[in-house]
Amino acid sequence: MKKILLIIFLIMAIFQMVVLAADIDIGLEAFDRENGFSTNITMISRDNPANETGTITIVEIWADEEMGGCEVATFFSTNGVILTTRDSEVVDNGNGAGVVLAGSKQTFTVDIDVQAGDMIGLYCSSGKISFDGSGSVGMYYQAGDKIPCETTVFIAEAGYRLSLYGEGELAAEEEANAIFFGTTF
Fold first, then answer.
1. Which of 96-110, 124-138, 155-169 comes out lowest in average pLDDT?
2. Cα 148 to the center of its chain, rounded Å
């Protein structure tokens, strides 16, 4: 009986490690980059699309100048540069809804739906997000507030990397697959 319980415990521990390794991440690390990109533009990071389907629970942003009216969203491509918003949320960590303080990584608790392959983006009415021009993939952008949007044409810009990152949890179905099969499908 003790051997059976030990085997069950070991199997559960292995499955737990698989689940922990399967967390969702999207976007690029939020840190102080070379420049500040003016807001009042909807910007979408093309780097590091979501690796799984589920919910983004944490968003990290580095503002070069304090940002106001900030809303974060997940986007998917319907055809090349034609994008649609999947889900969005105004960020708030106690400094006021939509405010992102400058000079350090700001972390926000959110509840944003995401599917594998989605990209993370944001719109802010004022301030600047930290970015640099040394990336390979780049970003999409469009003037004004495009959160939410449906089948909207964006402009592709190679090389820009935004300090915008999210991580989250697998969808219940994906998590069940990971627990049962040791992987996701």
1. 124-138
2. 15
In angstroms, the Cα distances linking 157 to 1, 45, 123, 127, 142 are 62, 10, 16, 20, 11
pTM score, two decimals?
0.81
Q: Which residues pair with 105 in a beta bridge?
A: 62
Q: How far apart are CA 185 and CA 174, in angstroms?
A: 7
For the stretch 76-129, pLDDT in tens is: 999 999 999 999 999 998 888 899 999 999 999 999 999 999 999 999 999 999
Two structure tokens written together for 79: 């055809």
Q: For 138, which DSSP code?
A: -
Max Cα distance, the chain (Å): 66
CA distance 80 to 166: 23
**Is there a contact between 63 and 128 (Cβ–Cβ < 8 Å)?**
yes
Angle among Cα 50, 163, 46 to the nearest 5 degrees reads 40
As a whole number of angstroms, the distance between CA 112 and CA 53 comes to 11
* CA separation for the pair 110, 139 (Å, rounded): 22
User: What average pLDDT does this structure show over 22-35?
Assistant: 88
- pLDDT at position 22, please? 42
Q: Are 36 and 131 in contact (CB under 8 A)?
A: yes
Cβ atoms 78, 84 nearer than 8 A:
yes
